[in-house]
Design a protein that fits this description.
Number of helices: 2
CATH class: Alpha Beta
Strand order of the largest sheet: 1-2-3-4-5
CATH topology: Aminopeptidase
Shape: globular
Distance between the termini: 32 Å
Radius of gyration: 13 Å
Number of domains: 1
């Protein structure tokens, strides 16, 4: 399951990503850009086909949510997967920009 995978955050001045380096050399990632001070626009979540249905995508989202809560950051869920997760988790509504 996804418990064996570690999510890492890689920041740049304009954005960044949450990434899991997979055993076959591929990567699962959720990318974002800084659209305003204190606001991250999450624009993509992707998991290679060989690693789908293992909970990696939600693990990436959960890492982003945890950081947003800890940092007081707001999120714009441009990615359809992340938008769907926000609909499934109404408790995340305070994080919406």
């Amino acid at each position: 399951m996804s418990d064996e995978f570690v999510v890492k955050r890689e920041d740049t001045a304009s954005g960044g990503r949450y990434v899991v380096y997979l055993p076959d050399g591929s990567e699962a990632e959720m990318t974002y850009r800084r659209s305003a001070p204190g606001v991250l626009s999450i624009d993509h979540t992707g998991v290679p086909d060989a690693f789908r249905n293992r909970g990696l995508a939600i693990q990436l989202v959960n890492a982003g949510i945890a950081d947003a809560q800890a940092e007081g950051t707001k999120i714009v869920p441009l990615c359809s997967y992340v938008a769907a997760q926000f609909r499934r988790h109404p408790e995340w509504a305070p994080l919406l920009a």
